[in-house]
Design goal:
Layout: E1 23-32, E2 35-45, E3 49-54, H1 61-68, E4 76-81, E5 84-86, H2 91-96, E6 99-102, H3 114-118, E7 125-126, E8 129-130, H4 132-145, H5 161-174, E9 179-183, H6 191-206, E10 210-214, H7 218-224, E11 227-232, E12 235-241, H8 247-255, H9 261-270, E13 283-290, E14 294-301, E15 306-310, H10 317-325, E16 332-337, E17 340-342, H11 347-352, E18 355-358, H12 362-365, H13 373-377, H14 379-385, H15 393-406, H16 423-435, E19 441-445, H17 453-468, E20 472-476, H18 480-486, E21 489-494, E22 497-503, H19 509-517, H20 522-528
Parallel strand pairs: 3-10, 3-11, 6-9, 9-10, 15-20, 15-21, 18-19, 19-20
Antiparallel strand pairs: 1-2, 1-4, 4-5, 7-8, 11-12, 13-14, 13-16, 16-17, 21-22
Helix pairs in contact: 9-17, 19-20
Length: 529
């Protein structure tokens, strides 16, 4: 790979492909049982170009990446690297071919130093022992080339997730990657951190690295990428230069509908009656708080009402949700559920009182990858019955089939392993898990994070439908537009306390930003929102 010391970021190349592709995947097909995950897909990656892989969840993006990185074998088709046909039988074979991947969840060792993570398995040695000084010197050289001011001797876990992600990229670069795959690298980053990542990406692009960028943030796709491959239902829709497409055209290609899904949903919601009928709250919290986590907070949710929690990361939204569900225990205040005063010391108590909670971290607090879709879907219902009273087989089949159809879960196979589903379909299964318990209150923490626009619209429509049927909903999202689109009332939080509450009548994103940040910082916060 070219040296980076003197390289400056450049704009995206214009015109046709910049020379021969470094990787060509031709007519790739992969099946899992009866499910055709990829059907004759071709993609080309060119040196010095950022290439977006676009499509709804379930379109085949993850499968294609795993085929390129040696995780999945291909049923048919060919893979060529620098003009030579290769068989990528394992991740190590892909890495030897110059293909490196940085995943959304950073898979590094936080207890080791930055340099140890970058050189893991490739440490320089002297007389059989690791040469720490040489290791730190080499790591520093790579970090400097990427413009990263990180101490190689510092412990990785002491750095924020954004820096850890950049260290993972530095590790990939240090092994002389020809192709760098970035899978949802910005999902947990704020605006400043995203810009640092983009600066590194531009340096790598200018140095001749082919970068595959996967993201559900369309603004970022149009800012950083040069070319994109669009998939739908495991098939290739087309390859386009980013500059030749509008966001609306891209959405239409991805979802195959001649409309902008979220705008249509917003128009439908605007046409409905504003807000629920007056009734007794399904939940009332007074002065609810937890030392070091959340200051005393009041909150009411009525049947048929969506209460949106707005605020920046760390504002206290998730902390409040966890207290309402008993995932954390409050040490101040009172809580009433359906008019009954209660103290939730564990989630099981909340479930018994018809409260359901969809965590923002579906990977570690929701999805059980080695179980089937059906088993994942019925987990909460089985917990309410107790493990000595299994759900009858006929009831299992009826419930699972009903919710697979109602939520459009793909593939429509109750025996499919949960880990093989796309993120959006996993999220639908987790929603079904809680809806099967027939809750009175549903707490949704970032239910649409990391999923495509089509699945996002489906989940937002589902939330609106549930509220119309009388379910109380607490809806948390970092996307203010999404909060305002769905909510009857908006509660704004900052510094782990509630700072504002108002009816969602003619409330604009700018209004919420001013509440969060104050007039002096509204512009800055707007850039981060």
């Amino acid at each position: 790979m070219a040296h980076l010391e003197s390289v400056k970021p450049t704009s995206a190349p214009a015109g046709g492909p910049p020379g021969d592709p470094v990787v060509a995947m031709d007519d790739i097909s992969i099946s899992f049982g009866a499910v055709r995950a990829l059907d004759g897909v071709s993609v080309r990656l060119y040196p010095g170009e950022v290439h977006a892989l676009m499509g709804e969840n379930g379109a085949g993006k993850s499968t294609l990446i795993k085929a390129l990185t040696g995780v999945y074998g291909i049923d048919s088709g060919t893979v060529t690297v620098e003009g030579r046909q290769v068989r990528l039988a394992s991740p190590s074979a892909a890495q030897e071919a110059g293909i490196s991947t940085v995943y959304q969840e950073v898979n590094l060792c936080t207890n080791l130093t930055v340099a140890e993570n970058m050189m893991l398995g490739r440490e320089p040695r002297f007389l059989g022992a690791i040469n720490t000084r040489a290791m730190n010197r080499r790591a520093r050289a790579t970090l400097d080339r990427l413009g990263l001011d990180v101490d190689p001797a510092s412990t990785l876990g002491d750095h924020p997730i954004a820096v850890q992600q950049l260290v993972a990229i530095a590790r990939a670069v240090d092994v002389d990657a020809k192709v760098l795959i970035l899978d949802e690298p910005t999902s947990s980053l704020d605006a400043d951190e995203v810009e640092k990542l983009f600066t590194v990406m531009r340096r790598l692009r200018a140095a001749g690295v082919a970068i595959v960028f996967v993201s559900h943030f369309l603004d970022q796709i149009f800012e950083i990428t040069d070319r994109m491959t669009i998939l739908r239902n495991g098939r290739l829709v087309g390859e386009r230069m980013t500059a030749d497409l509008t966001q609306l055209e891209l959405v239409q290609l991805m979802i195959g509908r001649e409309l902008e899904v979220l705008e249509k949903l917003e128009r439908e919601l605007d046409a409905e009656d504003a807000g629920p009928a007056s009734s007794e709250p399904v939940l009332r919290a007074v002065g609810l708080g937890r030392k070091g986590s959340l200051l005393a907070t009041d909150l009411e949710v009525r049947p048929g009402e969506v209460v949106g929690l707005a605020g920046l990361l760390g504002s206290g939204r998730t902390e409040l949700a966890r207290l309402l569900f008993g995932a954390d225990t409050s040490d101040t205040g009172t809580l009433e559920v359906s008019g009954r005063r209660t103290r939730l010391r564990a989630p099981r108590q909340a479930i018994d009182r018809k409260v359901a909670f969809l965590s923002e971290n579906r990977r570690s607090e929701g999805v059980i990858g080695d179980l089937s879709v059906a088993d994942n879907m019925l987990l909460a219902l089985q917990a309410t019955r107790g493990w000595l009273r299994p759900i009858p087989s006929a009831t299992r089949r009826r419930l699972v089939d009903e919710y697979i159809e109602a939520l459009d879960i793909r593939p429509a196979d109750p025996d499919a392993l949960m880990r093989n589903l796309s993120g959006g379909n996993q999220q639908k299964v987790l929603l079904a898990r809680w809806l099967i318990t027939e809750p009175d209150l549903l707490i949704l923490d970032e239910p649409t994070r990391g999923i495509d626009v089509g699945a996002k619209a489906q989940i937002q429509q589902l939330v609106a439908d549930l509220a119309r049927r009388g379910l109380g909903v607490v809806f948390i999202s970092a996307e203010l537009e999404e909060v305002l689109r769905l909510s009857d009332r908006v509660v704004t939080m900052r510094d782990r306390r509630k700072i504002d509450e108002r009816s969602n009548v003619d409330v604009a994103v700018g209004d919420v930003l001013e509440i969060i940040a104050g007039d002096a910082r509204a512009e800055e916060v707007g850039a981060r929102a």
